[in-house]
Write a structure and sequence with these properties.
The complex is a heterodimer.
Chain A (H helix, E strand, L loop, with lengths): L1 E12 L2 E12 L3 E5 L6 H8 L7 E6 L2 E2 L5 H6 L2 E4 L11 H7 L8 H14 L1 H4 L11 H14 L4 E5 L7 H16 L3 E5 L3 H7 L2 E6 L2 E7 H6 L1 H8 L5
Parallel strand pairs in A: 3-8, 3-9, 6-7, 7-8
Antiparallel strand pairs in A: 1-2, 1-4, 4-5, 9-10
Chain B lengths: L2 H18 L3 H26 L7 H17 L5 H23 L5 H20 L1 H4 L13 H23 L2 H11 L1 H6 L4 H27 L9 H14 L6 H15 L7 H15 L3 H11 L10 H4 L3 H4 L13 E10 L2 E11 L4 E5 L6 H8 L7 E6 L2 E2 L5 H6 L2 E3 L12 H10 L6 H6 L2 H20 L15 H13 L5 E5 L7 H16 L4 E5 L3 H7 L2 E6 L2 E6 L1 H6 L1 H8 L4
Parallel strand pairs in B: 3-8, 3-9, 6-7, 7-8
Antiparallel strand pairs in B: 1-2, 1-4, 4-5, 9-10
Helix pairs in contact in B: 2-7, 2-10, 2-11, 2-12, 3-4, 3-5, 3-10, 4-10, 7-10, 8-10, 8-19, 11-12, 11-13, 11-14, 19-21, 19-22, 21-22
Classes of the chains: A alpha/beta, B alpha/beta.
């Protein structure tokens, strides 16, 4: 069954068309990675699925339900969660409140939220130490952890991560990828945009390559990772 | 409608009006439009360019009007002398008010300026011996309405022309830079405070000039013309016309003068009209009338493509005025036992670090270890509680950011902060010019020398863009760049200041592996071209290991290890705190 179906999607920002006729599918329980250079339209794709941007044409469906053009809060209530690039944390509020706000759309019982809070903090001990401090006082990397942890608080059925490893120390990058792998075993479907393409492809089931707003390649992640064109264009000699 | 056609139509209408009607009512109305245009053109420099809101400009309008009125009556001064006096009084008081008020900004500044306007209004009412009190000053030798019309139209045209020149100059770019990101502007050696004072003074001077013309038009002035409501109309005209756009003042002034006249029967509801206009501006015309028209035209024009090879011939290292100073004895940057804490939380403790000329020193460590704090201390955004920072032997501890930048320290930010209100090439031109903005008069008048300088700045900026692979996007708005290219732009802008020391905060974050290899080559090339010494905060270990001469490791605000890349990589404390056990 597909968790997300995007067909013929075009998106325009300020007069320029950023996505052209993009079609992709994410099946339930899969990790799908989107690879592409800067300006390829990866962030635009995620924002459009999340309802932050409006599509100019095309269809977006979660399960059987069309969500294209719906406002972001409605999309979020269907268990579709975006961890945005640039963190988007609420700087004046405490770390705890930021995390609890991540659970607002769920309308879950207090005990359930408390349990999830505990679980999210297990992944990021640095946040546990700073629960009652304003989030704006965290370092950049800690804010990135908070953004990911807040995404987890939404108990997503379908999670979109836009560069979750951005600004994190190597030891935490490993933790982030471990968290993503664990989420899959919990049954969460994941759409991953990540510049550490080598690692992302190592984790993903399937992948799409986006170039100048068009899908130019798609297939099993292992094949994409070995594709000479992808290696030359994105992975480089170091295969990072 | 292209801007050129719009201006031509406006000029034709202004020239034709007296021939079309001898009715003094219409001419008087046109004079009012002109006066409002002059004030809002000045306000545009303050609010549109530097992003600061004043709700007290009726005060400067009043100062100009009363200065001119008093000079013309008590001193029997000729009109031109009275007008000059008006401009001087408004400008001097504007500079004084700005120096005090611009310690705050945003809504606080708006409140301070409201207070200023109210004080002026009350002084006009109470200081009867000079101002004539509530009755005001009358029997001021006035101009005929026809004569006033030509004078006011000419001055309004000149005011718009001056602001257009300013917008295209290094001063204008610096003002927009301060509006976009004060923090980034200071990192290029610009004092945001000084630039805002300049903008405020220009706006006060133009308001004073308009006030003098108002006096000559009416021959009578009283405090009723200079209330808080007048200040609100000034700002509303600008917002409605288009904040920051060059034609905005004219369009807004016309709308705000003509609409109330069309609805004279509803004079009692004037405030409701203003309120409605404000709501319309905010909901449907966020960029004003001019912005809405221009925005429609923009969608059709493709972004200009600058051929990369046209600038590739310019060697960036040769493009600069002077090569960076030769290596000094001892370290270029010396940090001695600095410490800082925020609200009882210790961020850095006794950190000592030195960076020799031409070296690349990496600072690594877990998230929250204090790496960015260290950069903020070096660049003056934070003051250390203890310790000393020396640059080329000179103590720079406690200097403000722009002063440190002027000594040759450039930086990028963890979250890139390009000036979103400027184009890509303009961003770099701000860096090339740095604090050397040239004469303000030359910028306002658009003198030929200034134009030559502009071309030179642009040429150098293009060279830096070519080096960072951004030449093709030079004319695009910086806001349209994706995250990774925003970082490249920031590096280009920092390098354009020709720094001795460059601080990079996670330059590889958000770059694809292949892009990181490009960055690696660029940084290596910089070092080979005798470029700046570099302090690199970065998590990408392959990049760090490949290009660093030395690595310092921070953890919990302390240096836990430092040395060569090989030694640091093998250090057990570093592996435990930062690298983790390789999977």
């Amino acid at each position: 069954m597909s968790a997300l179906t995007v067909s013929g999607l075009s998106v325009a920002c300020g007069g320029a068309t950023v996505l052209h006729d993009v079609s992709l599918e994410v099946r339930a329980g899969e990790i799908v990675s989107v690879v592409g250079g800067n300006g390829a339209g990866k962030t635009t794709l995620l924002k459009t699925v999340a309802g932050v941007l409006r599509p100019a044409a095309g269809r977006i469906a979660v399960g059987d339900e069309a969500i294209g053009g719906r406002p972001s809060w409605e999309v979020a209530r269907r268990g579709v969660v975006l961890v945005p690039e640039g963190r988007g944390i609420f700087g004046d509020q405490s770390v705890r409140d930021n995390l609890l706000l991540g659970a607002v759309a769920r309308r879950a019982a207090r005990e359930v939220v408390a349990r999830d809070l505990d679980r999210a903090l297990d992944h990021f001990p640095a946040l546990r130490e700073r629960l009652d401090r304003p989030a704006g006082g965290l370092s950049g990397g800690q804010q990135q952890m908070l953004a990911v942890a807040r995404g987890l608080m939404g108990a997503p059925r379908f999670l979109m991560l836009d560069e979750p490893s951005l600004g994190l120390a190597p030891i935490l990058v490993r933790e982030i990828f471990a968290v993503i792998a664990r989420l899959r075993t919990d049954g969460v479907t994941i759409l991953l945009v990540e510049q550490m393409a080598g690692q992302a492809l190592g984790l993903a089931d399937r992948a799409y390559v986006l170039e100048r707003g068009r899908v130019t390649l798609s297939g099993p992640a292992a094949e994409i990772r070995e594709n000479p064109a992808v290696v030359q264009a994105y992975l480089g000699s170091g295969r990072r | 409608m292209t801007p050129r056609v719009g201006w031509a139509l406006a000029a034709a209408a202004a020239l034709a009006l007296p021939a079309l009607t001898a009715n003094t009512y219409y001419l008087y109305l046109a004079c009012s439009i002109g006066l409002l245009t002059i004030v809002t053109a000045g306000l545009n420099v303050l609010a549109g360019f530097t992003g600061q809101i004043s709700l007290g400009h009726a005060g400067f309008y009043a100062l100009g009007a009363y200065a001119a009125g008093l000079a013309a009556t008590r001193l029997a001064a000729p009109r031109w002398a009275a007008a000059i006096a008006a401009v001087l009084v408004a400008a001097v008081l504007g500079a004084a008010v700005a120096s005090a008020a611009l310690r705050v900004s945003g809504p606080y500044l708006a409140m301070v300026t409201i207070a200023f306007g109210i004080i002026v209004e009350h002084v006009l009412v109470e200081w009867v011996s000079v101002t004539g009190g509530p009755g005001g000053i009358f029997n001021i030798p006035k101009l005929s309405v026809g004569g006033s019309y030509w004078l006011i139209a000419a001055v309004a045209a000149v005011a718009l022309w001056l602001t257009a020149n300013l917008r295209g100059s290094a001063w204008g770019r610096a003002m927009l830079a301060v509006k976009s990101s004060e923090v980034a502007a200071e990192s290029l050696g610009l004092s945001a405070y000084f630039i805002r004072i300049t903008a405020f003074t220009i706006s006060a001077a133009l308001a004073g000039l308009a006030g003098a013309l108002f006096t000559f038009l009416n021959g009578y002035i009283s405090p009723d013309s200079f209330t808080l409501q007048t200040s609100i109309v000034f700002l509303l005209a600008l917002l409605f016309g288009g904040l920051g756009s060059l034609a905005g003042p004219l369009v807004g002034a016309t709308a705000l003068t003509v609409l109330p006249e069309l609805l004279t029967g509803l004079a009692d509801y004037r405030l409701i009209l203003y309120g409605s206009l404000l709501l319309i501006s905010i909901y449907w015309l966020p960029a004003g009338v001019v912005g809405a028209i221009a925005g429609r035209g923009r969608a059709r024009t493709a972004p200009a493509d600058i051929a990369a090879d046209s600038v590739a011939a310019v060697e960036p290292a040769a493009a600069g005025a002077g090569a960076p100073p030769a290596s000094e004895p001892g370290a270029l940057l010396g940090i001695e036992r600095i410490g800082v804490s925020f609200g009882g939380v210790v961020a850095l403790t006794e950190v000592t670090l030195s960076v020799p000329s031409r070296h690349i020193v990496a600072v690594i460590g877990p998230n929250g270890a204090g790496k960015t704090t260290l950069l903020n201390l070096i660049t003056g955004y934070y003051r250390p509680d203890s310790g000393e920072i020396r640059l080329g032997g000179e103590a720079i501890t406690g200097l403000p950011p722009y002063a440190i930048a002027r000594r040759g320290v450039a930086r990028t930010f963890q979250t890139a902060q390009p000036f979103d209100d400027l184009t890509v090439v303009d961003n770099v031109m701000v860096g090339v010019a740095g604090p050397r903005l040239g004469g303000l008069a030359g910028a306002l008048l658009g003198l030929p020398g200034r134009r030559r300088r502009e071309r030179e700045l642009r040429r150098r900026a293009q060279a830096w863009l070519a080096m960072l692979g951004l030449a093709a996007r030079a004319e695009e708005p910086a806001a349209s760049l994706p995250a990774g290219l925003r970082r490249s732009l920031e590096i280009a802008r920092a390098l354009a200041t020709q720094p001795r020391l460059l601080l990079l905060d996670e330059p590889a974050a958000g770059l694809a592996p292949i892009e990181i290899e490009t960055l690696d080559r660029r940084l290596t090339a910089l070092r080979e071209q005798a470029g700046p010494a570099i302090v690199l905060v970065e998590h990408h270990m392959e990049l760090v290991m490949a290009i660093s001469d030395r690595i310092a490791v921070l953890d919990y605000g302390r240096v836990i290890a430092s040395g060569s890349p090989a030694a640091v990589r093998e250090n057990p404390a570093v592996i435990e705190a930062y690298l983790g056990v390789p999977a």
